[in-house]
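hey so u asked for the seq, here:
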Amino acid sequence: MYSRASYHGVSNAFLPHSWVLAYVDGRWKSFDMALQHFDSTHIALTVGDGDERSVAAAGQLASLLVIASMAEVRVRN
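ran it, C-alpha cells below
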C-alpha cells in the first residue's frame, strides 16, 4: 500500500501490507483492519493464504515497480 504520511520515518512510500478479501452478500469485499479503510492505495501484487512464498513473491514484484507519475483525486466539497 502507498503511504503519503510518515511511517517509521519514511513518507511517500510503498509498504508491504496484507488485507482480507471476503465473499459477503453475493460479492467480494475488501477489509483492512490495520488502516480502517480500503482505497486506491492498495495494489495487489500477489494473492495468497499467508504462505511465505506468496509474501516473498509480492516483495520481488514490488522491487520491480517504477513509479513514473502520480496524481491525487479528491472529492469536491
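The helical segments are 52-63. Residues 52-63 form the longest helix (12 residues).
lmk if thats what u needed
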